[in-house]
Amino acid sequence: MPSGWSLIRLGTILVYLFMFAPVAVVVLLSFNSSQFGSFPMEGVSFRWFVELWNNDAIVRAFQTSLVLGALTSVISTTLGVLGSLAMVRYSFPGKNLIATALIAPILVPEVVLAVALLLFLGALGQPKSFVLLLAGHVIFTLPFVVLVVQARLVGVRREYEEAAMSLGAGPVQTFFQVTLPLILPAVLAGGLFAFTISFDDITGTLFWKPGGVETVPTQIFAMLRNSISPEINALGTVMIVMTVALPLLGAAAARRLSRGRGGG
Amino acid sequence: MTEATTHAVTLQKVVKRYGDFTAVHQTDLGIEDGSFLTLLGPSGCGKTTTLRMIAGLTSITEGDILIKGTRVNDLPIHKRNLGIVFQNYALFPHKTVQENVAFGLKYRKVSADEARRRVGEALELVQLPQTADRFPSQLSGGQQQRIALARAIVIQPDVLLLDEPLSALDANLREDMRVELKRIQHSLGITTVFVTHDQSEALAMSDRIVVMSAGHVEQVGSPEEVYNRPSSEFVARFLGASNILEARIVSADRTGAKVETQGLGTFQAAIDQDETRRFAEGQKVKLSIRAEKLALTATGKGAAEVASGDAPDIARFDGRVTTVDYQGQVARYFLEAGGHQLQAINTIDEHPLSEGEAVSVGVRARDVVVLPQ
Ligand SMILES: Nc1ncnc2c1ncn2[C@@H]1O[C@H](COP(=O)(O)OP(=O)(O)OP(=O)(O)O)[C@@H](O)[C@H]1O
Ligand SMILES: [Mg+2]
């Protein structure tokens, strides 16, 4: 008779299967040499990855996604660090309101946010553009950066900065010499977050993207409307590698960084 | 030379308020060049606030602060040339000892060679020359504190500010560091402001002590002055163990005052010449007598005999030991005399007095301090 524990184990395995089996199928099928994206697999090949590489639309979407993700990440992180500094280190009127406003984009449903930004742009009489798309992604990723960086900054005692200033470092020098190095792991994590969120966002992107511009998710979405091509499996595999491997790499780098500094 | 220029730091009518709450009431203070000044007082009395105002880390509500005769109210901290040592060291965890100590030199026009030499000297001075390549997390608490000190003095600051720098260390280390710190301060001749709530630290290290209470300066003086001639009941109680008695002035002249207590008879009390004016006949006052200034003698020996050997300025009264707190070299006695609970600390020769023993208590006029009511 199976004991309670083995039942739980069985349940856990089933849940994981349910969650990851589809992903595994996508990855597996991306290496299928058959024309049709279904089992049984006929043989292993990199054919679909090569096709991907030769598909101009996909390569363009990829470039767009990379540029968009990178810019979003840099802008969000910069703004997020500045915002966190203001929230943690200074007190000023209306601080609570601003703190809420910074986090709000997480709480508001993405569709609402997307429409709101679009309406706002309409009111200004501007056409959709890449800048709008970028702005949308920045607004949407900023809260994640702020939350991560703020949490870290709270743990960095004021005395470090006061000590630096007493030794002659101005506020800017103090930031780059002391504050930034101490919050660097959180800054990197925030930046990676922003990148991966931007990289696989579809809801907002569908609303904001100007005509003719596709990101990887909207490209897949468009391709799905015609047929389920094995190319999509290959593309899915590439995206999984990007969004899973990148944060892992980042975490490893951050760990290395803090070890190198004797921070243990 | 004017007064202000012989002072490294001057506080003029300085006030600090947080909203309605006054953390530091109007304070005037001059800190002599090269001296070691301690701000001493119980928790929350405004020591840190005062120190931070000098440092420029806290804004001042009213008044002026002068460093080397220059008004610095609006000068930001990084332009004040001060060395600060924090209670928790605040060494930069991502920099090596070498980089930590050299930090302040980056913002002063010092060549790389010169910087290396000065960092080396500073590390010698705090006796940790071999730690240059380590990170702060690889040092003990005491070592971190020394490095923090080295980092603060290597820039040759005009004033060294220390906020309870020893309180995070364990008792033995604290005493070593106390001596060490004083040695370094003395050898550099650097003006130092030291904050502590530990009276023994203050007494051992300071040239001058500022005793603070609830945002007020209670007394400023040398360790001996504040210990032996407290100017208020607060100071008398805060430093060491004191007996405080209610009394009335019978007469006061240039040499001293005659005071009458309830239950213990009349005493001669020493007062300074300029204090004579402060006390009028019949005025109610308080007396402060240090526990170690009450000399106990067992009355079994014969009271008359004891008294006959006394100098003329010694007053005597009878009492009874209620509790003995034996401490080896000395004993602390709690006694009952004339309806008062008193304590006395006496060195022990042969045997301590025992509980319940009747004693004769002698006290010299110069050890009786008259305090205003
Ligand atoms: N930022 C602030 N806002 C309001 N009140 C404050 C602030 N900083 C200090 N205070 C108050 O001012 C008073 C003096 O504080 P301070 O830190 O100077 O005390 P302290 O003498 O250094 O005490 P401790 O020995 O505990 O360090 C305290 O009552 C404290 O509550
Ligand atoms: Mg304090």
Strand order of the largest sheet of chain B: 6-7-8-3-9-10
The number of distinct β-strands of chain B equals 20
CATH architecture of the largest domain in chain B: 3-Layer(aba) Sandwich
Distance between the termini of chain B: 39 Å
Contiguous uncertain segments of 5+ residues of chain A: none
Structural class of chain B: alpha+beta
Report the C-alpha radius of gyration of chain B, rounded: 25 Å
Please provide a written account of the structure.
- The complex is a heterodimer of chains A (264) and B (373).
- Helices cover 79% and strands 0% of the residues of chain A.
- Chain A has eleven helices and no strands.
- Chain A has helices at residues 4-30, 47-54, 56-89, 95-107, 110-124, 130-154, 158-166, 171-199, 203-208, 216-226, 230-260.
- The longest helix of chain A has 34 residues, at 56-89.
- Chain A is globular, with a radius of gyration of 23 Å.
- Chain A starts with a helix and ends with a helix.
- Chain B folds into two domains: 4-233, 3-Layer(aba) Sandwich (Rossmann fold), CATH 3.40.50; 241-372, Nucleic acid-binding proteins (OB fold (Dihydrolipoamide Acetyltransferase, E2P)), CATH 2.40.50.
- The radius of gyration of chain B is 25 Å and the shape is elongated.
- Chain B has helices at 3-6, 47-55, 97-102, 112-125, 141-153, 171-188, 199-205, 223-228, 233-238, 303-308; strands at 7-18, 21-32, 36-40, 62-67, 70-71, 82-85, 159-163, 191-196, 208-213, 216-221, 242-252, 257-261, 265-269, 284-290, 295-298, 314-326, 330-337, 340-347, 358-364, 369-372.
- Mean pLDDT of chain B is 86; it is low at 1-5.
- In chain B, the strands form four sheets. Chain B has a six-stranded mixed sheet, sandwiched between helices. Chain B has a five-stranded antiparallel sheet with strand order 13-12-11-14-20.
- Magnesium ion binds at residues 47-48 of chain B.
